[in-house]
């Protein structure tokens, strides 16, 4: 673009530079090099489009013509035959595509520019760059130049078909000045910082919100907000506000000034603060008229362009921060699940040679107990050896019945299940019994099992067996997953859940890795109330990072992974492997 401007000016050096042309200088290049964020890059790009957008097709057509001209000169120098040149020219004419045409832009700024209002806009006394420096330094570094004529008189010279009266000319000129100020990167940078520091949020309920948002609703705590500083928002608050707004319950307004305060006392508006940087401090009628035009231009720039754009930017930023907070919360929740070490029995139990029988598998043996809601459903028990393999299982169809049931038949069947459980415990000798925390019936089951264990200790001197309550959210997810159907095709769903319960207390890291597969089952775990509102890929990446960190902290036994396929899911999280290499 700089070279194109140079060619245009060099074509007629004596011709004065038109008001609508803004030379592209090195300061613009340096500004592009100093860009540090997406917002700053967008500011520079929009600033470029404002001044040079209409020249881009001309520049591209000129570059295309120069390229062809150079190519032709090069070919002429290499070949002496005129016939070859004529043939080449004819071929180029046939292959030549249509030149780029100017886009038919009919926005307000283009109309004002076509009407030649650039010249009047330059007479406002400060360039947008100078106003931006005044704003950045918070004092009038550049004095406002005063043109020796009243604005209404000057406007008469620019009357045309589009702007038929001087007042319309001034209106269009103010629009141009406001747009130039709003597109100036330095002005936007200063205002962005100030807006984010001072922004306040105001919330009012809609007619629907007044009716639906009660004390039990998630939006009740912010049903009414007035002048709440945005920087005081934390966690996922703003995402909840936006969800309520999407549901039509609330209206959210983000502004820089205090609502209901119109600049009295020390609470002046931001517009009152910055308009003095565009003033000329004189009292003649001519200066006052120009000051009024400048004030109207700044006010329009703020209220029509900058404030809505900054509010939208801040809203997107707050939304991104809220979603990032949710992802961090999910990662922290998963970290707390994965950091739990494998279950260790009491020291006295570990030293018992009879209980630590390697013939039944090295390591602790766990009996997982799973049940469903309803007293008529059976209880399933699954015994898992030290390697995580299922060695036996037990079905107790009447274990959920009460010991003191009214019907004698139910009491007898309950006692029969208790005897079956005793025989199973005596023969299999598990180190710990893990009971799924499905509902309140889990407490009754735990009490019955503890009573059975206590009786065995007294009658047969059996070492103490721990009884633990285990959250079954992961087990229910595994029970319904495709992987469990492949691993235990002939097992009923509750027995699969019992297997997962036992494996979870045995080694939580291995069991959580079972659902972290290509099916993305892990997203079905409830780690945060709003986790479904974040980008799925971002959440999965964060969860994978937690698995990678934990697996590389504790390591993976490769020989065990080969011998016991259910532990192979950990191999993919070893640094340098990944899902593809880990599967082989």
UniProtKB/TrEMBL annotation:
- Kindly give the Pfam families that the UniProt entry links to this protein: HHH_7, Tex_central_region, YqgF
Per the record, the GO terms for biological process are: nucleosome organization; transcription elongation by RNA polymerase II; transcription elongation-coupled chromatin remodeling
Report biased composition (Acidic residues) as residue ranges.
Answer: 77-94
Give residue ranges for domain YqgF/RNase H-like.
364-479
Give the source's domain of life in one word.
Answer: Eukaryota
Read off the SUPFAM superfamilies from this record: Ribonuclease H-like (SSF53098), Tex N-terminal region-like (SSF158832)
Q: Where is this region: Disordered?
A: 1-22, 74-102
Q: What protein name is recorded for this chain?
A: SPT6 homolog, histone chaperone and transcription elongation factor
Cite the GO molecular-function annotations of the record.
histone binding; nucleosome binding
Please provide, in alphabetical order, the Gene Ontology terms of the cellular component aspect for this entry: transcription elongation factor complex
Concerning InterPro entries, the annotation shows:
RNaseH-like_sf, Spt6_HHH, Spt6_YqgF, Tex-like_central_region, Tex-like_dom_sf, TF_Spt6, YqgF/RNaseH-like_dom, YqgF/RNaseH-like_dom_sf
Origin organism of this chain? Answer: Lepisosteus oculatus (Spotted gar)
């Amino acid at each position: 673009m700089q070279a194109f401007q140079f060619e245009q000016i060099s074509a007629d050096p004596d011709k004065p530079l038109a008001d609508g042309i803004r030379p592209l200088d090195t300061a613009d290049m340096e500004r592009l090099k100093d860009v540090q964020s997406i917002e700053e890059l967008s500011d520079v790009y929009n600033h470029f489009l404002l001044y040079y957008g209409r020249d881009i097709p001309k520049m591209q057509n000129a570059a295309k013509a120069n390229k062809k001209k150079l190519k032709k000169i090069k070919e002429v120098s290499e070949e002496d035959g005129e016939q070859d040149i004529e043939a080449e020219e004819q071929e180029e004419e046939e292959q030549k595509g249509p030149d780029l045409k100017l886009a038919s832009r009919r926005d307000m700024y283009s109309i004002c520019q076509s009407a030649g209002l650039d010249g009047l806009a330059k007479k406002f006394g400060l360039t947008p760059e100078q106003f931006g420096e005044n704003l950045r330094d918070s004092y009038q570094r550049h004095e406002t130049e005063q043109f020796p004529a009243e604005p209404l008189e000057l406007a008469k010279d620019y009357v045309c078909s589009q702007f038929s009266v001087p007042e319309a000319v001034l209106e269009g000129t103010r629009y141009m000045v406001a747009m130039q100020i709003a597109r100036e990167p330095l002005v936007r940078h200063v205002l962005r910082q100030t807006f984010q520091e001072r922004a306040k949020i105001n919330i009012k309920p809609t007619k629907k919100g007044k009716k639906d948002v009660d004390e039990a609703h998630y939006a009740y705590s912010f049903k009414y907000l007035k002048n709440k500083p945005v920087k005081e928002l934390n966690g996922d608050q703003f995402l909840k506000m936006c969800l309520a707004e999407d549901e039509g319950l609330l209206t959210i307004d983000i502004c820089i000034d205090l609502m209901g305060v119109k600049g009295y006392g020390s609470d002046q508006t931001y517009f009152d603060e910055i308009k003095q940087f565009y003033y000329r401090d004189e009292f003649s009628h001519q200066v006052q008229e120009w000051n009024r035009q400048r004030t109207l231009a700044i006010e329009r720039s703020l209220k029509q362009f900058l404030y809505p754009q900054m509010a939208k930017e801040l809203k997107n930023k707050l939304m991104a921060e809220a979603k990032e907070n949710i992802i961090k919360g999910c990662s922290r929740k998963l970290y707390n699940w994965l950091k739990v070490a494998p279950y260790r029995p009491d020291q006295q139990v570990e030293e018992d040679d009879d209980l630590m029988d390697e013939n039944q598998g090295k390591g602790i043996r766990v009996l997982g107990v799973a049940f469903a809601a309803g007293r008529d459903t059976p209880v399933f028990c699954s015994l898992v050896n030290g390697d995580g393999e299922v060695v036996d299982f037990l079905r107790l169809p009447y274990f959920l019945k009460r010991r003191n049931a009214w019907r004698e038949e139910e009491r007898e069947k309950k006692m029969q299940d208790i005897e079956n459980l005793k025989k199973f415990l005596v023969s299999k000798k598990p180190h710990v019994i893990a009971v799924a925390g499905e509902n309140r019936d889990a407490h009754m089951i735990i009490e019955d099992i503890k009573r059975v264990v206590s009786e065995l200790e007294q009658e047969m001197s059996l070492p103490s067996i721990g009884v633990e309550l285990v959250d079954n959210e992961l087990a229910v997810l595994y029970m319904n997953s495709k992987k469990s159907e492949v691993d235990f095709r002939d097992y009923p769903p509750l027995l699969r859940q019992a297997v997962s319960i036992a494996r979870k207390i045995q080694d939580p890291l291995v069991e959580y890795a079972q659902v972290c597969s290509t099916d993305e089952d892990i997203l079905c775990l409830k780690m945060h109330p709003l986790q479904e509102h974040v980008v799925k890929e971002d959440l999965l990446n964060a969860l994978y990072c937690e698995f990678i960190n934990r697996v590389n902290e504790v390591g993976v036994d490769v020989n065990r992974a080969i011998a016991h396929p259910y532990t192979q899911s950990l191999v993919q999280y070893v640094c340098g492997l990944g899902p593809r290499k880990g599967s082989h």
